[in-house]
């Protein structure tokens, strides 16, 4: 009876510790989004499917994200994905596009974790963190030029 009680207590402690660990290690800081005007020349790379870029400030010079926001165009129908550039393992380091992979992978230069943008910012096998990049919502105005990032 005492043995069963001790084993149950240990199982509950392990369960609680695992749940807490996941929340604390995957807490990715993120900032505010913004609005960008895709007709401006600095956003030219977002005009084609697969085009992507890091955006640090919106048109009103408001800083976006914690370490910037990486935006990639996913379809000709003006659909976009937007991710926080802060590495989930080390929030003070900004992830960058992996050379040779276009806009589909981002990598942390410090911990070397690689994140797949087309898999919702999840880390690729072998990465130093199990945490995904924070994903922002994107909405295109009816005018087809103004992309809102929330």
Note down, in words, how this protein is organized.
- The radius of gyration is 19 Å and the shape is globular.
- It has a 4-stranded antiparallel sheet with strand order 2-3-4-9, with no helix packed on it. Strands 5-6-7-8 form a 4-stranded antiparallel sheet, with no helix packed on it.
- A hairpin with a 5-residue loop joins β10 and β11 (146-149).
- Residues 5-24 have low confidence and may be disordered.
- It contains 1 helix and 11 strands.
- It is of the alpha+beta class and 150 residues long.
- It has one helix at residues 2-25; strands at residues 34-37, 52-55, 69-75, 79-84, 96-97, 105-107, 114-116, 122-123, 135-136, 138-140, 146-149.
Report the sheet with the most strands, covering strand number, pairing sense and barrel closure.
4 strands, antiparallel
Taken as a percent bin, the fraction of beta residues is 25-35%
| Class by alpha and beta content | alpha+beta
- Provide the residue-averaged pLDDT: 83
Gap from first CA to last CA: 54 Å
Number of strands: 11
- Our count of helices gives 1
Helix share bin: 10-25%
Strand order of the largest sheet: 2-3-4-9
Note poorly predicted spans. Answer: 5-24
- What is the alpha-carbon Rg in Å? 19 Å
Helix-strand topology string: HEEEEEEEEEEE
Shape: globular
Brief descriptors of the model:
alpha+beta, 4-stranded antiparallel β-sheet, 150 residues
Lay out the secondary structure:
Elements: H1 2-25, E1 34-37, E2 52-55, E3 69-75, E4 79-84, E5 96-97, E6 105-107, E7 114-116, E8 122-123, E9 135-136, E10 138-140, E11 146-149
Antiparallel strand pairs: 1-11, 2-3, 3-4, 4-9, 5-6, 6-7, 7-8, 10-11
């Amino acid at each position: 009876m005492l043995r069963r009680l001790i084993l149950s207590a240990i199982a509950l402690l392990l369960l609680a510790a695992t749940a807490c660990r996941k929340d604390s290690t995957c807490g990715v800081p993120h900032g505010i989004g913004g609005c960008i005007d895709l007709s401006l020349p600095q956003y030219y790379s977002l005009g084609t499917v697969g085009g992507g870029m890091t955006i640090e400030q919106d048109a009103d010079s408001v800083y976006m994200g914690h370490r910037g926001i990486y935006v990639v165009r996913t379809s000709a129908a003006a659909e976009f994905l937007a991710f926080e550039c802060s590495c989930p393992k080390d929030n003070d380091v900004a992830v960058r596009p992996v050379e040779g992979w276009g806009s589909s992978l981002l990598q942390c230069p410090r911990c070397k974790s690689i994140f797949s943008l087309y898999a919702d910012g999840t880390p690729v096998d072998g990465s130093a963190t199990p945490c995904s990049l924070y994903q922002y919502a994107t909405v295109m105005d009816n005018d087809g030029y103004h992309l809102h990032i929330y």
